[in-house]
Amino acid sequence: DRAAVTSVDSLAAARQAVAATAFDAVVLDIGLGDGSGFDLLPDLERGGRATPPVVVFSAQDPKREIAFKVDAYLTKSRASLDALVEVVGALCRRAAAGRGDGGKAP
What we know:
Blueprint: H1 11-20, E1 26-28, E2 31-32, E3 35-36, H2 41-44, E4 54-58, H3 64-67, E5 72-75, H4 81-99
């Protein structure tokens, strides 16, 4: 399966993208030039849309209080890109099944 990917390099750009687009999943990095990827979490819960699954893919180890706020947390030094793709796909399928559209991720 193929997926469309939107990549941004700042918190401001991420906020603009989230405001304009209903994403099926969000992969966050903590270290953005103008803030933390965690600062985007409240934005994902706004707008009357279902909150997409959130995966943190970061060089930093998870802090317990933050790890509970996301669907998955992968540390770059211990998880491959293949593992990231697998986790995102599984979360998208689970979210689609919860919406009642047959469990098919877009």
